[in-house]
Each structure stands twice: as C-alpha cells, then as structure tokens.
C-alpha cells in the first residue's frame, strides 16, 4: 500500500516540535517511502564579510551547514525512525522556496511536506511567502500540515470543478480524485467529493423581473449534481459521499470540511503567478486560510515550474 514513494520534508529551523516531520514519518511508514529532511539556511552577513577571503567565507558557511546537520541528527533522536530510509540535506540559499523546489526536482520527490503555523493570539493561520510560492510553483504534490490530527477511518475531501468547459478541468479533476483515493487508501479513510456552484446573479432579478431565480438555481444545481455523479461513478464513490453546494469554493469547502471533520482537503492549484495572481489569487490560497485540517495541493498535467534547476 503506497500513496507516496519519495518524501521531501521542509523542517522548521527554530522549532523542536516538527509537525511536518511527524506527518511525513507517518506517511513513510504506511507507504514504505523514502524520506529526505531538508533545511534552507542563509545569512547575508557572511556574504558581506569582505575582509575574509572567499575560501575563508566558504569554510565559515560549511561550518554553519554542518552545525545544522548535527542539529537535525539530534532532532531525529526524539522520533521513531526504525526501518525508515532517511537522508539529510542542508542548503545555503537566499530563496528557500527555490531551494525546496530544486531539491524536489533533483531528488525526484513526489511530495513536499511543510508545516503551517497559527498566528499568536489569532485563530487563523499565517502563511509565509514560501508557502505561497510552493503552492504556485512546485511541480510535485504539496502537503501543508496543520494541527489537526489524522484519525484512522477519517475523511478525505476532494474539491473538484464539474461542468467545466475544457479538458483541462476534467484532467485536473481526475488527478485530484486519484490523489484523494490514494491517500484515503493509505489512511483507511473515506473519500468525499465536493463541488461548489455559483448562485444566480443578483443583478438579473433586478434587471429582468420575470426571470425565475428559483428555477435557474434548481437547474444549475441539477446540472452540477449530474456532472459530479458521472465523475464519482468512475471512482466508485457513493452518492452519500457526493456534495454539491451553492456558493464560492472558499466558503463551501471549509464549511464542509468542518462538518465532516475532514483530516485532509485535496484540491488543484493552477500555478498562476505574476500580475494575474496578485489580482485574482488562487482558490487553494483562499481555502487554506480557513480550513482546520491539512491541505494537499495538486498541479495540472503538464505543469512546468518557473523555477529553473
């Protein structure tokens, strides 16, 4: 039984309790997967020590890297790593997300596991720029870990977009559902599908008084229910595990995840970057700020990362 084969874990540089490491070791044990622990470090002051020769600066940098490797080795003593194959990588890089993605590509890792953190004094989660970059640019699966534990016989919620007008949506739906099924099999969990659909625009009722809003909503709901049922049939997912709800995905998905007490939400990220990302954002980024469980981000087929190795 295997949902992943080669795991890359991004460690927190200043924490003794490592949520991502806990989750990754659990995944590795049930999947017989290989694990690589990585840390990206950088200190600009070392680069600016112009009084030292390049060789001396390199020696100082290597010393820092070795110190962090020792720290990771000591950290592992608090974990059960018996029978697991674990590698350690510490990289000197001024852009952590690039170091992570480059390591994932070179090591042929099929998943990146990274922890998220609650903001002190607030209920919501704060995501670092590295989190956003990984969601948008990492070609592999990205698992962002929260505090919610993974109970046995829990629920995995796959968020898909039915009645899409392109093969792109259909292909991504398949990849999302396959990933959800794979993790559910490993975790002895149940897969649920959710599809959010938009309601009737408010302006229509105002501009066209004879417009039947109720009938419009009913037709739209039926279309989405039929499309979701057709998709679910391919994966043997029961009708009781199919959820079609009116509203925006960033509202519907977190609400249903909480109702189901889901351990994992799986959704697709299109990898939008640049100006369009600043204007529109990605559904995954809106959703992940509100869900209380882990999120697994899946890229479309043929996705190419902008990070050059």
UniProtKB/TrEMBL annotation:
<dbReference type="Pfam" id="PF00582">
    <property type="entry name" value="Usp"/>
</dbReference>
<feature type="domain" description="UspA">
    <location>
        <begin position="179"/>
        <end position="299"/>
    </location>
</feature>
<protein>
    <submittedName>
        <fullName>Universal stress protein UspE</fullName>
    </submittedName>
</protein>
<comment type="similarity">
    <text>Belongs to the universal stress protein A family.</text>
</comment>
<comment type="function">
    <text>Required for resistance to DNA-damaging agents.</text>
</comment>
<feature type="domain" description="UspA">
    <location>
        <begin position="5"/>
        <end position="146"/>
    </location>
</feature>
<keyword id="KW-0963">Cytoplasm</keyword>
<dbReference type="GO" id="GO:0005737">
    <property type="term" value="C:cytoplasm"/>
</dbReference>
<dbReference type="InterPro" id="IPR006016">
    <property type="entry name" value="UspA"/>
</dbReference>
């Amino acid at each position: 039984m295997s949902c992943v084969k080669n795991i890359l874990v991004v460690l927190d540089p200043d924490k003794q309790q490592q949520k991502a490491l806990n989750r990754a070791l659990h995944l590795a044990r049930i999947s017989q997967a290989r694990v690589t622990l990585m840390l990206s470090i950088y200190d600009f002051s070392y680069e600016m020590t112009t009084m030292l020769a390049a060789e001396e600066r390199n020696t100082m940098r290597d010393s820092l890297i070795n110190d962090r490797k020792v720290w990771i080795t000591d950290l592992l003593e608090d974990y059960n790593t018996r029978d697991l194959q674990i590698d350690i990588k510490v990289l000197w890089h001024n852009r952590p997300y690039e170091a992570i993605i480059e390591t994932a590509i070179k090591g042929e890792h099929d998943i990146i596991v990274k922890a998220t953190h609650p903001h002190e004094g607030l209920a919501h989660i704060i995501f670092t720029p590295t989190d956003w970059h990984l969601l948008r640019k990492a070609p592999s699966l990205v698992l962002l870990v929260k505090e919610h534990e993974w109970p046995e016989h829990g629920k995995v919620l796959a968020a898909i977009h039915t009645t899409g007008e392109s093969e792109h949506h259909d292909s991504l739906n398949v990849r999302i559902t396959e990933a959800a099924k794979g993790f559910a099999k490993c975790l002895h969990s149940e897969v649920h599908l959710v599809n959010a659909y938009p309601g009737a625009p408010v302006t229509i009722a105002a501009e066209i008084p004879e417009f039947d809003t109720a009938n419009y909503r009913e037709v739209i709901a039926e279309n989405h229910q039929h499309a979701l049922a057709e998709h679910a049939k391919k994966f043997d997912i029961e009708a009781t595990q199919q959820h079609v709800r009116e509203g925006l995905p960033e509202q519907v998905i977190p609400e249903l995840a909480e109702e189901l007490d889901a351990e994992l939400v799986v959704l697709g990220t299109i990898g939008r970057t640049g100006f369009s990302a600043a204007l529109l954002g990605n559904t995954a980024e809106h959703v992940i700020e509100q869900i209380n469980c882990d999120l697994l981000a899946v890229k479309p087929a043929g996705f190419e990362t902008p990070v050059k190795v």
